[in-house]
Amino acid sequence: MADKQMDFTLEDPSGLKLHFPVNPSEVNIRRDKSFETITIIRGGELDVPQGVKVKEIAFSSFFPADYDASYCKYKSLPNPQTAMNQLNTWMESQEPLRLIITETDVNVLVMLSAHNSSFRGGEPGDVYFDVTFRTWNDYKVRTLDERLGSSGGEARSDIKPVPPTYKVKSGDSLWAIAKINLGSGGRWREIYEANRAIIGDNPDLIQPDQELVIP
């Protein structure tokens, strides 16, 4: 696989994108209690098996001040400090980001949970960074009054998760939505059955802006 085919990008809900200019040499992925390090050599493959729930993704790279064709993905580089400030803003935000690593199965909603930066002597203007992302889940947290209820009894501990949803975009299919959100396009029927009342009798006729529950 040629290096030019693999790209690392972050996108926020407003559509603002950050395309990392230098690919990391390795990516650390945590699934449940295990860690896996995938080394990317000259853009080598980063394989995330279908159906496996990724919990955490971490990698290190840098924002170069000047373009160098031997490692930069594109010429119109972001200002390193501006890029770092954007990462800081996203880390403080409560909105999920979409992390995409092209030529892989990594296309997930995440929260930026940790971010460190550093400078190195002899490389003026370059900013090095480490980032850690956690996969995003939307939980409904009840207030104390809601948990006590009208009877004023003891607080309950059942903070129930709200199922994640997906807003249909033009050109989407249930297969593609299942691929992105469940790890396998073959699981499209699970999404259809959970949203039959919205979609109707024909699973091929989904409409843009429909809000689908992801089971």
TrEMBL record:
Gene3D superfamilies, alphabetized: LysM domain
Residue ranges of the TM segments: none
CDD domains in UniProt: LysM
InterPro entries in UniProt: Bact_Kbp (IPR052196), LysM (IPR018392), LysM_dom_sf (IPR036779)
Tree of life domain: Bacteria
Domain LysM: 164-214
Entry-linked PANTHER family: PHAGE-LIKE ELEMENT PBSX PROTEIN XKDP (PTHR34700:SF4), POTASSIUM BINDING PROTEIN KBP (PTHR34700)
Descriptive protein name: LysM domain-containing protein
